[in-house]
Amino acid sequence: MTKLSISSLFLMLVLSYLSDGAIGKVNLKEVDRKLKQLNKPAVKTIQSEDGDIIDCVDIYKQPAFDHPALKNHVIQMKPNFDVKEEKPSTTAESSKLVVSQTWRRSGSCPEGTVPIRRIRREDLLRTNSIDRFGRKPQEIVVSKSNTTNQIDGHSPFINNTKLSFPTMANRSAAVLVTVGYNYIGAKADINVWNPQVEANDEFTTAQIWLKAGPGDNFESLESGWTVNPHLYGDRRTRFFAHWTKDSYKTTGCFDLTCSGFVLTGTEITLGGAIDHISSHFGQQYKITVGIYMYSLMVDFQDPKTSNWWLKYGSDIPVGYWPAATLMSYLKHSSTLVEWGGQVYSPNVKKKPHTRTAMGSGDFASGLFGNACFIRNPNIVDYSLALKYPEWVGAWADEAYCYSAYNYQKSYGTLPVFYFGGPGQNHNCP
Ligand SMILES: *[C@@H]1O[C@H](CO)[C@@H](O)[C@H](O)[C@H]1NC(C)=O
Ligand SMILES: *[C@@H]1O[C@H](CO)[C@@H](O)[C@H](O)[C@H]1NC(C)=O
Ligand SMILES: *[C@@H]1O[C@H](CO)[C@@H](O)[C@H](O)[C@H]1NC(C)=O
Q: Could you tell me the distance, in angstroms and rounded to a whole number, from the CA of residue 200 to the centre of ligand 3?
């Protein structure tokens, strides 16, 4: 017997032992009910070489339709509008676009189905509460940020006005922010890395946020990549989407772990691993992520179809959030867009600091080939064109742990946003 099969046998024994009784607070009947609800019957099943199982589910039987308000939802099969691309500045160092996910090497989903990453029993057994499965932890404001403090709560200047962001418990961010308009879209090229995550209940992201609403109860649509062992059961870099209507208190979730997001494409699965990871001084890879309120662009009067579309790669529609159903402020527009990274850990903003890294694990000052970048952080306003925001501010919660640097190489070129860091180091003990 090989080492591998012995350890997997051991794992099976442990799991069967555990399944004899309740684990922690999780009730096993509840686990099975949840699994049945999340995993819809498959028309075809694809076993990916990374261990994922992808179910091709009838598009009309996907989890979105479990949402009470989406029972009679008519699927919008594709976005009904194209945003005008501004030509990006061409001084950018070369990086390759990652166009597909690992599972696609093992098969594809037929027309009329959507690819859904199967949730396993052990994924649910890792959680303390089935109700909170797949959800980002609630954002708890600790204090208003204070600029006299050099380490915590840096506030960005936008348009020469200092913005004050509240300090959040258990979260550390390094972001580029824009406010001041109504945004009906945002996009970015995000460099792909696989940063270390120290403990299983921590995660790290590189992403876009579109937000609206009051600070303690905001609505947010998010997408990018993450390393999140608690959710996915491994430390691969994965493409994710997340939404919330109440700053993660009781609504929303990652990917399709709750009902709401409507998948339409056959090519991209939410939570699927990204094939190519950049290396220091080596080949750089990026994904392109865009979130657009298409219907609004076409018909401002018909909120029933005000959907926020998620696009991946050069122009692949993944699906959409039906804003009229899920959102209230975001039915109309977003008022704050952020690009960058976030580390979730009970050990941020304290000593000893977590070793969970952000971005590439290098500081923003490492620039191209070392630090994680976000290029072409574009927004869409009512002019319906993608463009670099008029005002931006860069901001890091803990600049000695994870830094932020909006770097303009030369006059006349657009800045590239670099961010990240190792977490714990001699300046961040
Ligand atoms: C910010 O820090 C200063 C100096 O430490 C202090 O006087 C002030 O009350 C603080 N403000 C807030 C909002 O915490
Ligand atoms: C930015 O600054 C200009 C000039 O001070 C002002 O007219 C404009 O309203 C400001 N915009 C925002 C969003 O604060
Ligand atoms: C931070 O995380 C720890 C560990 O999960 C948790 O006990 C604590 O309540 C969290 N703090 C806040 C303010 O949410």
A: 15
